[in-house]
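User: two proteins, same treatment. go.

Assistant:
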Amino acid sequence: MRYPRFSHEPRTGGEREPNRVEIATRSLSLATVHVIGEHDLSQHMRLRDALDLAAARRRNLIVDLSQCAFIDSMLLRLLLYAQGEVSSDGGRFAVVVPADEGPVASMADMIDLVGLVPLYTSLQAAVADVEVGAGARRDQSRIAPEGAHHG
């Protein structure tokens, strides 16, 4: 069952902001935070609030950066913060980074993000692994799951 998607960003005149964060609850145990557009220090609190809200409502969390055009180091720090929050409650955490050569994938490769968080090149692969593997944890730091991003 798919739950409705809502934007964590106020709408004006029915138009969506180009730089926004959307939360989708995919099941009773999984939320996805979609980071869309460009995100830097000025968007820090909005993104942190969305991550906190999603983690509070669901045990498992996926952050989808596939529609994100730019991230800075603050967003990467927030990813590590969210992973810690989710993991400390026994949940599973994953990040989706596009397989292209864009700025988000380049930043992920530059800092070896795959060594820090479970990384996937598609939302479908992340959802499948998080939902199926929620009961059987494995060491994500040594073995990248199938469909994971390889730098």
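Protein 2:
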Amino acid sequence: MPVQNRIVKVQKRNRALVRFDEARIWKAILRAAESIGGFRQDFLPGINDKIFDAYGAEDKIAEFLADAVVVSPSLMSREDVRDGVALTRKGGTCVLTGMAAQTTRSAKIALQDFILWNKNLVGTVFGSCNPRVDIARLARLYQTGQLQLDEMITKRYRLDDINDAYDDLLSGKLIRGVIDYGLK
């Protein structure tokens, strides 16, 4: 029997499991973004000050922090690390999945906050897999129908259409696009 590659339930902040509703998740993300200034700017300078001014107390602010924060820009910056850790709740985990420039040697985080709030900061590349073992295992799962990769592809593009792929990605029409060299 093939394995289903889909989310069925999600865990809320209060640990309750609820049915996954993609439309509801998108609405919550949009409401959250609009509440802090919408999508008019790429970076939100002073966001912590805005939240403190609006809610004043740390216990109220803690309601906005996430159990897990996944930071995945195309190029990781010091600010990305700082902001990801700042958005992580007490005992939560911030996961860095992007690559940093080779000249970036350190990141500045609020160390006292990091230690006292028992936060975890982890990095991962390729899902922290062991390529020598895992790639062969994943290939076997795919060949036996237990890993349904084809169903994860939103659209296939010819190499000549790469600009269309980027446009679709930026406009939100595309989740997982693939450049298929076999397409004519």
